[in-house]
Amino acid sequence: MRNSSNRRHLSRASGAGAALLLSLAIATAQARAEDFAITHVSVIPMDRERVIPDQTLLVHDGHILRYGPAASTLPPKGGKLIDGRGRYVIPGLSDMHVHIPVGGPTINGSAEGSVSPDAARAFLDLFIANGVTTVRNMAGGEPHLLLRDAINAGKVEGPRIFTASAIMDGDPPLTSYTMAFGKPDAARAYVRWSARKGFDFIKVYSTLGTDVFDAVVDEAGKQKLPITGHLPQLVSFDHALRGMRSIEHLSGFDVAFWPDPSKVSAGIPDLYTGFAFGTTAKIEELVAKVKKAGVWNDPTLVVYDRLTNELDREKRQDLPEGRYLPAELRDDTLFNQVFDARHRSNLEGSRSVRLAIVKALSDAGAPLLTGTDSPALVVVPGFSLHTELKHFVEAGLTPYQALAASTAEPARYLDRVGQFGTIVPGASADLVLLAANPLEDIDNVDRIEGVMVRGRWYPRQEIDATLEAHAAKFAAPE
């Protein structure tokens, strides 16, 4: 059985993952959370759309203590002062669709291999450098659990991680990096295994049959594991909405747009081609169903933009931020094989439809999340999340609405309101200090002066030094 074989691979990968984790822990500077005061700063708490000027924000033991008028809020004795004059502080950002390369079933399709410690460290550092303090890992194995727990325990520096187990696909699966389930009982058993191991959610994929999908939904409900992923191509839009916590890549819309969805086949040839049939009336009809079902959408617009023609693909290898990743994480061969040139041309042509869906979801009050699918197709961690925010604004959202999809909404989606995603007393001190107001111009999210992750402060100078160190390691020999 294919899924049994994959499980053996996962077991072997856990040993490699533990070794990598040890390397990361050794390489990580252990900095104890200190007391801080960010003085005379404009606070954007993201509990609603507002800017509160000239505040002093106090951080104690890795958490937000409080903030108040600078004139009457005294910094703690012995605490470190951060000058916030002319600056704006927002909650840490969230990338809700990533594939962390630590071994196990990662996006490159290898269930056994793991990346080098330098590559893994760079991946985490790039999130921090760009103010991304929470990530949702969309294909995981036991090494990801080890990394998640080590970060939570302060043994490794990195963003907060929530992780799925391996991707649950039909038989035959869409690609080599998913696990195949052709029988409901086998799918139920894997969901139970995922719950016992402590994974945070279940991810389903494109070729699942309705009977297996229903078994996953039923068992995940019993195990109290939310379900995310692709709406399977052979499961109707209405039926699938009853089981999903969130939809990735706007999948399901594409099939429902087809003039006759019953003619769609499960597999690559028909995957996402239906966007070309999208109309305003059909978008509004489907968005109303999503709103009623209370399902989040994580559009990952940025990764669609990377499925381009061959000429633009060549240019992508020269992206400035690409130098912070090793060649092994800049290899886009897999997805350019999965999606041939004609398929990619179709996706380029239907970009306006995806932007219209995002705007319609926002207008209807259907919840949105920001995700990128990094590192697929040279979607560089952190930098790509900023691009996704700009795509949301391009779609017609306000900067506040875009930022909410990356701060307050992920916390609400994960049932962690008050723990992160907003600047409120008691929340984790995950903060981004900006040189200009992002509510006036979303491009200002790029103007980072410093990042705080659970009370650990990374000033701009340290961020730049870390980035340049990674660039030097990964530079091609002359």
Automatic annotation (TrEMBL):
Checking Pfam families in the record gives: Amidohydro_1
Q: Does Calcium appear among the keywords? A: no
Keyword annotations for this protein? Signal
Q: Which residues form the signal peptide?
A: 1-33
* PROSITE patterns assigned: TAT
User: What domain of life?
Assistant: Bacteria
- The answer to whether keyword Signal applies is yes
Record-annotated Amidohydrolase-related domain positions = 88-457
Q: What are the GO MF terms of this UniProt record?
A: hydrolase activity, acting on carbon-nitrogen (but not peptide) bonds
Entries under PANTHER family matching the protein: ALPHA-D-RIBOSE 1-METHYLPHOSPHONATE 5-TRIPHOSPHATE DIPHOSPHATASE
This protein is called what? Answer: Amidohydrolase
Q: Which organism is it from?
A: Rhizorhabdus wittichii (strain DSM 6014 / CCUG 31198 / JCM 15750 / NBRC 105917 / EY 4224 / RW1) (Sphingomonas wittichii)
